[in-house]
From TrEMBL:
It is an enzyme of class 1 (oxidoreductase). InterPro entries: Ald_DH/histidinol_DH (IPR016161), Ald_DH_C (IPR016163), Ald_DH_CS_GLU (IPR029510), Ald_DH_N (IPR016162), Aldehyde_DH_dom (IPR015590), ALDH7A1-like (IPR044638). Belongs to the aldehyde dehydrogenase family. Homotetramer. This is aldehyde dehydrogenase (NAD(+)). It comes from the Bacteria. Keywords: NAD, Oxidoreductase. Transmembrane segments: none annotated. The active site is at E251. GO terms for molecular function: aldehyde dehydrogenase (NAD+) activity.
């Protein structure tokens, strides 16, 4: 019997809505679940419910909230294999990768469980006697979190865990094509003892979500928006939040460069390019977009890279494969459109493009050599198993090429030269830089995020994300018994500035 998935608001199942079939992309005829998609009113109602629950949750001492986060980590750890299997079934991610994704939730919980005892403010000396100054972190209120489905459980945890730890309530809208995985993660969070209404999950399509968010912002029931998705939708979300004087946390797309210097370990660079370019079928925001390889090693690198791709296994995500199917039909259709961007001056390797034989949404891996600045394949994100290659003669040119598309999420350089590493770090616009490593891969205690078309400078993960889910509050306490006016009633000690020895 097909699973039935509905929104959960205030601890209760939400209303039925428009049915949506979440399919197994490895076997598209197989329906994993029927998801009831709500309208704008369902999203807005969830935000009202969250607002009503948030104040009491904020009163729970932060160290106690930290223990709830610890429980979530243990519950996810105990259910890791089951959750990973759901991810593999629903979005086609190879099982080994899905297990790694689930591990990232545990790592995130392990980091933040202690932050409940470290939501530090400061005691600051005053310029006046008998007066003390303090700063406090306070929760923002209700966070509306909207996530993509390529990392259906790990990326949401980057938002949910710190938001809840800091005393906020959350309305989470996951991707509808990854609803089963999201619903399972929601149930694990709820089992940790979260009060009803503190975490709510809403299933809706993009248009209904946007309209519901607009309504909630207008009603004042949302104080923070977190969004992971495309640059185009991120712009719309940013504009909407700006009208309400809010600064969202935007984690958007990328056109991530990998620079291969003439002294690079080419075997290592090929291994990194293979994983970054084609892992998860190239459906990561940190996937490799363009290899920028020095002209002296271009031919050798390309020969090795093409051979590695030809030898890679693509297929059933339950097996040992480089990648499985595309996430969903809409991503497969979009990828086919990207293939039309290949131009006559390009050289396609290994030689096959388009869909592979079989019932699943499997597509051939493609290397496109000879891409030029100005080509769509060079300038725009391609969410799928396609990697461009171009050449450079000097490091300054490589940095300019890396920055040209205007994204700024992740980047990589392969070299043995420390001077080149630091020149690249200084010049590249990306928020994240890897040295002799792929463009993909994040750890739970480092800031994650991008600039330019990749985001608005907000960061997730580590202690830096606390600035997204708390606001600084300043307090001054004057116990002098009289009104002391700042900058006016300040004692002065007069120096003799004319003194000379």
């Amino acid at each position: 019997m097909t699973r039935q998935i509905v929104s959960v608001i205030g601890g209760k199942d939400g209303p039925s809505g428009t049915p949506y079939e979440s399919i197994n992309p490895a076997r598209p005829a197989e329906t994993v679940a029927t998801v009831q998609l709500g309208g704008p009113d369902v999203f807005a109602d969830a935000c009202r419910t969250a607002a009503a629950a948030q104040r009491e949750w904020a009163r729970v001492p932060a160290p106690v909230r930290g223990r709830v986060i610890a429980s979530i980590g243990r519950l996810v750890e105990a259910n890791a294999e089951t959750l990973a299997r759901l991810v593999t079934q629903e979005v086609g991610k190879p099982y080994a990768e899905a297990l790694g994704e689930v591990r990232e939730i545990v790592d995130t919980c392990d980091f933040f469980l202690g932050e409940g005892r470290r939501l530090y403010g400061q005691t600051v000396p005053s310029e006046m006697p008998d007066k003390s100054l303090f700063t406090f972190r306070v929760p923002v209120g209700v966070a509306a979190v909207i996530t993509a489905g390529n990392f259906p459980v790990a990326v949401p945890s980057w938002y949910l865990v710190p938001a809840l730890l800091c005393g906020n309530a959350v309305v989470w809208k996951p991707a509808e094509y990854a609803a089963v995985s999201a619903h399972a993660l929601f149930r694990l969070f709820a089992a940790a003892g979260l009060p009803d209404g503190v975490l709510n999950i809403v299933f809706a399509d993009g248009a209904a979500t946007f309209a519901g968010l607009d309504r909630a912002l207008g009603e004042g029931t949302v104080q923070k928006v977190g969004f992971t998705g495309s640059t185009a939708v991120g712009r719309a979300v940013g504009e909407l939040c700006g009208r309400h004087l809010q600064s969202p946390c935007l984690e958007l797309g990328g056109k991530n460069p990998m620079v291969v210097m003439p002294d690079a370990d080419l075997d290592l660079a090929v291994e990194g390019a293979l994983f970054a370019g084609f892992g998860t079928a190239g459906q990561r925001c940190t996937s490799l977009g363009t290899v920028i390889v020095h002209e002296d090693v271009h031919d050798e690198f390309l020969t090795r890279f093409a051979e590695a791709v030809r030898n890679a296994k693509i297929g059933d995500p339950n097996g040992e494969v480089l990648y499985g199917p595309m996430l969903d039909h809409k991503f497969a259709e979009r990828y086919e459109d990207y293939l039309t961007w290949i131009e006559p001056h390009h050289t396609v390797l290994p030689g096959s493009t388009g869909r592979m034989e079989g019932e699943g949404l499997y597509y051939h891996p493609v290397i496109v050599d000879g891409v030029r600045p100005g080509d769509r394949l060079f300038m725009e994100e391609t969410f799928g198993p396609i990697v461009g290659v171009t050449t450079f003669t000097g490091l300054d040119e490589a940095i300019e090429l890396a920055n040209r598309p205007g994204y700024g999420l992740s980047s990589s350089i392969y070299t043995r030269d420390p001077q080149a590493v630091f020149r690249f770090r200084e010049g590249v616009s990306a928020g994240m830089i890897s040295v002799n490593n792929s463009t993909s891969g994040a750890e739970a205690h480092l800031p994650f995020g991008g600039n330019g078309k990749s985001g608005n400078g907000s960061r997730q993960s580590g202690m830096w994300v606390l600035d997204q889910f708390t606001r600084w509050q300043a307090m001054n306490w004057d116990y002098s018994g009289r009104l002391q006016k700042a900058q006016m009633d300040v004692a002065e000690i007069t120096p003799d500035l004319g003194f000379r020895i």
